[in-house]
Amino acid sequence: MVKRLDVTEKALEVIKMLKEKHGDLMFYQAGGCCEGTQPQCFEKGGFYVRTNDAMIGLVDGFEFWIDRDLFEYWKFSHFTLDVTEGFGPGGFSLETPLGKTFKIIYRLFTEEELKDLEPVKRME
User: Fold this and answer.
1) Distance between CA atoms of residues 26 and 82, nearest Å
2) Which of 38, 73, 87, 120 has the most crowded CB, counting CB atoms within 10 A?
3) How far is the C-alpha of 8 from the C-alpha of 13, rounded, in Å?
4) Exposed / middle / buried, residue 111 (Cβ in 10 Å: 0-12, 13-18, 19+)
C-alpha cells in the first residue's frame, strides 16, 4: 500500500524534542483562517477532531488528522511533513516556542499510486 504521509528527518528531530517535553502528540491540519493550512502539533487530546475529519497516517507513531473539507480538496495528494525556521501564522502549535513552524510539501499521486492507497480513518 502507498502511504499518504511521510516526514522529513528535520521534522522528526523537532518531534523528538516535543515528545520529550510534552509526551504523546497529535497533528491536525485545518483549513481555517487563523492557521491557514499550516499543520499544528498538540499534546494528544489537546485538539478535538470533528466528525468525518480524516486521519491520513502516523508521524513517529502519532496520528495526523486533516479537516474533512481540506481532505476532500487534497485527497489525491501525498503529504510530507517538514519544518522551517520562523513563526507560522497561527502560533498555537507546540513547535512555535522553538522558533520553528511545521509545513507540508504536497505532490500529486501518480495514477499507479492511486490504485493502491492506504485507507483513511474517519472520525465518527
Assistant:
1) 15
2) 38
3) 9
4) exposed
Task: Tell me which CATH code domain 5-116 carries.
Answer: 2.60.300
pLDDT-derived band at 42, boundaries 50, 70, 90: very high
pTM of the model: 0.93
User: Cell numbers 501525498 label which residue?
Assistant: 78
Q: What is the pLDDT of residue 10?
A: 98
Per-residue cell: 95: 513547535
Nearby residues of 4 by Cβ (< 8 Å), 6 or more positions away: 56, 57, 78, 79, 117, 118, 120
Cell 513563526, located at residue: 87
Radius of gyration of the chain (CA): 14
Residues above pLDDT 90, as percent of the chain: 84
* Residue 93 near residue 102, CB atoms below 8 Å: yes
Q: Which DSSP string do the residues of 30-88 spell out, in sequence order?
A: --SSSSTT-EEEEETTSS-PPTT-EEEEEETTEEEEE-HHHHHHHTTEEEEEEEEES--
Strands 77-85 and 39-43: unpaired
The pLDDT value recorded for residue 16 is 98
